[in-house]
Design goal:
Length: about 160
C-alpha cells in the first residue's frame, strides 16, 4: 500500500511554542479590545481559510456575526477587518510581514497590527504604509478602535 504524498513544509508552523509574554499580550489585547465587543467580534487564535491562503492571527477583529451553537464554523472565509500578530520568540519578523503581504492584504484584510514585544511596539501595516506606535494612542480609522500600546506592556 502506497502512502499518499505529503508536503511537510506546507504544514510547518514557524510559531511553534506559545511563550509567557505572548500569552500575556494576547490576554491584555483581548481584554483591552473587549470594550468594542458590541460593535465587532474579537476572536483570538481563530484560523481563517482566506482567498490567498490559511492564516491564524493571534487576534482577529471582524464584523459581528451570529453564533449558531448547533453548527459551528471551523475556518471562516470572510477576512477580518484587522489581523493582529504578536511576534513569538522563535519567529522571524519577515514571517509576519510576508503573511500580511501575501495572504492578508490580497484576501481583503485592511490592516495588520504587528506587535513586537521586545521593543514594546505596535507596527500598523496597510497595503501602502506602515506606522510604529510605542506610546500615545493607536487609532484605526476604519473601525474607530483605539488602543494604548503602553497599556499592553505594563510591568
Amino acid at each position: 500500500m502506497e502512502t499518499p504524498p505529503y508536503d511537510v513544509f506546507e504544514e510547518f508552523q514557524t510559531e511553534d511554542v506559545m511563550s509567557y509574554n505572548h500569552a500575556k499580550l494576547t490576554y491584555r489585547l483581548t481584554k483591552s479590545l473587549g470594550q468594542y465587543d458590541e460593535l465587532f467580534d474579537i476572536l483570538p487564535e481563530l484560523e481563517f481559510d482566506l482567498s490567498h491562503g490559511r492564516a491564524k492571527p493571534d487576534v482577529a477583529i471582524c464584523l459581528p456575526g451570529k453564533a449558531n451553537w448547533l453548527k459551528d464554523i471551523i475556518r471562516p472565509t470572510t477576512p477580518p477587518l484587522i489581523a493582529i500578530e504578536i511576534l513569538s520568540p522563535r519567529q522571524a519578523l519577515s514571517d509576519l510581514t510576508d503573511k500580511a503581504l501575501d495572504v492578508y492584504f490580497p484576501s481583503g484584510v485592511t490592516t495588520v497590527w504587528v506587535i513586537i514585544p521586545q521593543f514594546k511596539q505596535v507596527t500598523v501595516l496597510s497595503p501602502t504604509q506602515q506606522e510604529v506606535f510605542t506610546d500615545g494612542t493607536l487609532r484605526d480609522e476604519l473601525t474607530g478602535i483605539e488602543l494604548s500600546p503602553a497599556s499592553l506592556f505594563q510591568e
